[in-house]
From TrEMBL:
Homodimer. This is Diphthine synthase. The gene is dphB. Keywords: Methyltransferase, S-adenosyl-L-methionine, Transferase. The lineage of its organism: Archaea, Thermoproteota, Thermoprotei, Sulfolobales, Sulfolobaceae. Residues 4-222 form the Tetrapyrrole methylase domain. S-adenosyl-L-methionine binds at residues 11, 86, 89, 114-115, 166, 207, 232. S-adenosyl-L-methionine-dependent methyltransferase that catalyzes the trimethylation of the amino group of the modified target histidine residue in translation elongation factor 2 (EF-2), to form an intermediate called diphthine. The three successive methylation reactions represent the second step of diphthamide biosynthesis. Belongs to the diphthine synthase family. GO terms for biological process: methylation; protein histidyl modification to diphthamide. It comes from Sulfuracidifex tepidarius. It catalyses: 2-[(3S)-amino-3-carboxypropyl]-L-histidyl-[translation elongation factor 2] + 3 S-adenosyl-L-methionine = diphthine-[translation elongation factor 2] + 3 S-adenosyl-L-homocysteine + 3 H(+). GO terms for molecular function: diphthine synthase activity. Its EC number is 2.1.1.98.
Length: 254
């Protein structure tokens, strides 16, 4: 009898739980998700060094379009879908989990340290004040997706903060500089007075790694700031409680 495990590996080796390690060590097959996120020190080769199970590097096609193959394998074997961070936060793996359950396969989820929670904690902004999050994507065929603009506008109208994930496209990671430039272009297009150059954002870089950084700066400062190596993530805050404003003062730029 097989089983399908969705394992969160955390953001880096030091943040991988013992439970995740145990299940990876014992699994027959590990489907390593290379599509939804990236870690500074967890890699398919690192996972190979932990287990005698077969490690398969999975792209979007295998995880979304060919998930039936994974589910069919899990009818007989212990199969792990291993994701950097948490397997169910800002991913589409719930769809595979539901299909597997419908097919009679036992499904287990092992949460991991997610960039979402890690960022909220490091920013010290109130966890009660975060709304819908959204990904800023590169324009495709010259068309700009202004969904992040709509989400920030809606969250701000409710006085809540927005987490902005940044696009990963064919191995290229969007930089905070590119993200800020796209947000300002969205304002130019929509002109609904949502995003201004002097708005303050929080940028998390390589969270969970030795060289992680969290900085708070204005959009105009962010345009030319060197944020270092990826991955990066942004918070677009709404109005700040005085304690949140104090917390951000400790995170000013270098
Ligand atoms: C689609 S989300 C997936 C989140 C993942 N499932 C988790 O729970 O951590 C991936 C995006 O989160 C951000 N991200 C992921 N890991 C990060 C890290 N260690 N430091 C900063 N940003 C990170 C990047 O913007 C990246 O493109």
């Amino acid at each position: 009898m097989g089983e399908l495990y969705f394992i969160g590996m955390g953001l880096s080796r030091s943040l991988m739980t013992n439970k995740a390690l145990d299940i990876i060590r014992k699994a027959d097959v590990i489907i390593y998700d290379t599509y939804t996120s990236f870690s500074c020190d967890i890699s398919p080769d690192y996972v190979r060094s932990l287990t005698s199970g077969k490690v398969i590097e999975a792209n979007r096609d295998l995880l979304e379009n060919r998930s039936a193959e994974v589910i069919s394998l899990a009818k007989e074997k212990a199969v792990v879908v291993a994701t950097v961070g948490d397997p169910m936060i800002a991913t589409t793996h719930v769809s595979m989990a539901i299909e597997a359950r419908k097919a009679g396969v036992k499904v287990s989820v092992v949460p991991g340290v997610s960039v979402h929670c890690y960022l909220i904690s490091k920013s010290m902004l109130s966890s009660y004040k975060f709304g819908k999050s959204v990904t800023i994507v590169y324009p495709s065929y010259g068309i700009m997706d202004t969904a992040p603009y709509s989400v920030i506008k809606s969250n701000r109208s409710l006085d809540i903060h927005t987490i902005l994930y940044l696009d990963i496209r064919e191995g290229k990671f969007m930089t905070p500089n590119e993200a800020v430039s796209l947000l300002l272009q969205m304002e130019d297009m929509r002109k609904e007075n949502v995003i201004k150059e002097d708005d303050v954002i929080v940028v998390g870089s390589r969270l969970g790694c030795e060289d992680e950084a969290v900085v708070s700066l204005s959009l105009s400062e962010a345009k030319k700031y060197d944020f270092g190596k990826p991955p990066h993530i942004l918070i677009f805050p709404s109005n700040l409680h005085y304690m949140e404003a104090d917390a951000l003062k400790w995170m000013t730029t270098k």
